[in-house]
Amino acid sequence: MEIELSKENICINKLVAEKKEIIYVEEDMIVPDTKPDILNTINVKGNLCVSKKEVMQDKIKIEGNVNTYVMYLPDSNEDNLRALNCTMDFSQYIAVPGAKEGMNLVTKCEIKDMECKVINGRKINLKATIEICIYLYSNEDIEIVNSVQDIQDIQILNQDFQVNSLIGNGKTTVYAKENVNIDVQDELAEILNVNFNLINQDLKLSYNKVLTKAEANIKIIYLTEDNRVKTANALIPVVGFIDIQNITDENICEINYETKNMLVKPNPAEDHSIYVELEIEPSCMAYEKKNISLIKDLYTPSANLEYTEKNIMISNDRSEYSNEFVINEIVNNLDIEENMLIDIQTDVSISNISITDTKITYTGNIGLNFIYNSGNVINSRNIKVPFEVLVENRQNSSNINVDYDIIIKEIKYDFKSDGNMQIDAILEIVTKISNNVNINIIDNIQIKDRNEENDDYDSLILYIVKPGDTLWRIAKNFNSTIDDIARMNGIEDTNKIDVGQKIYIPKFNYIKKENIQNATEPAFV
Fold it and tell me: What are the tens digits of pLDDT across the range 372-393?
């Protein structure tokens, strides 16, 4: 006979696959007829855009482009610096076992290296090394039995549990546009380099809405008609609204930003400005902390129960916290004077994460690209500043999922009289932690008739506690109840019994419920 069950719904958003993949994007470029021949490359820089993502059976597809700028020394008596702009498209399939259509895909893509080789004066070969971090999530609605109705003598062993139940996910597209001004006396010849990153990321939650806020920090190097190299900077607001039903300011919200496209072009000469347009997609996964009472075991002394169990993986203990670190470094033998410097381009990357029960260790590098003028010749020099920082592991477990965001909040340079440079950088690392836990869910509970043959023993038996015993196990094994055993033996803490302890077990069938309240304590207790 099936019995009535009370159930609670939760939506599980579990991490089913995590993978890191390196891909290579390579393309030959012909120098346009309007540009002089290439003698040597000075600097190459790319901005990564991801335009489309798709999840298929056991694989994903990712499409995008690398917007590349190449500064070069021309084979010309009239020019000492020119630039090329090239968009390298890519489309890549990546094997991800367990991937299925409809799963939620989060990617974090980073250019690890850019190479440019001169094939001849009119042709170059560009190659970008891209690291793609893949996080694949699966949503599943689960019903959890939290109580059983209409059985008076049902005995239930509960475990209180907190899960992160998915409220919903969503995304929006933001078009961040700005006319970046250059000096009014400058006549723009061409754009040499464009670099940007998102800073000051923030969010606000209200009913059914997520407000995402950030700023795009744009830095442009350009060449004037009189062969001067200048820079222009701007902060462009990136503000978007994501609709998620039933979200409130008490929920957990994870935001991921992805650049889908970028456009940078000079405005008419009389405007003295450069038009910048960024297409950025903020996406959000929102969770609520839900307390559930999970049935670990159950029985009734008066009947046999049959039920099914299934094992599921859930996500819990999801948290996010930010830490700032100051990195101080002396760069020796730089051989660049302050008045020679045009620009310093910076980036930061994590090469390794180590997790213990007490700490999370991030190892990485701050990349510095010095662009400077040396005797009317533009040069560049790359330097890596290594760092290792420690973050508290608030889960106190090494078996956790760790994701992160890292930015350079501030960086200062101080040229020393001995030719060295003091670098002081402030890094902000946002650590995102979650935990995958396997739990057993009891379902399809049915009552079966008892087999009375196994009930032929005395109404009171003496039992000696063995290693691993609990009152629950003892009561279930002898068709009694914890309350009856505790009352008969004067046990105050039902969670504590000692190995070798003698316990008298009353047989449930011989103790009528209406007489329990009036039962006297046995003399041997």
Answer: 888 778 888 889 999 999 999 9
Cα-flanking dihedrals φ and ψ of residue 513, to 5°? -60, -35
Six-digit token string for 330: 């002396």
pLDDT tens for residues 65-112? Answer: 999 999 999 988 888 899 999 999 999 999 999 999 999 999 999 999
Find, among 1, 40, 185, 3, the residue nearest to 121 by Cα: 40
Amino acid letter for position 517: Q
Is 168 within 8 Å of 30 (Cβ atoms)? Answer: no
Q: Residue 488 and residue 476: Cα distance in Å, rounded?
A: 16
Q: Where are the domains of the chain?
A: 13-139, 162-291, 314-444, 457-516
- 333 phi-psi bin (left φ>0, alpha ψ -120 to 50, beta other): left
Question: The pTM is what?
Answer: 0.82
Residue 513 has pLDDT above 60, yes or no: no
Give CA–CA dist 343/216, Å, rounded: 18
> Are residues 390 and 353 in contact, defined by beta-carbon separation less than 8 angstroms?
no
For the domain bounded by 457-516, which CATH number is listed?
A: 3.10.350.10
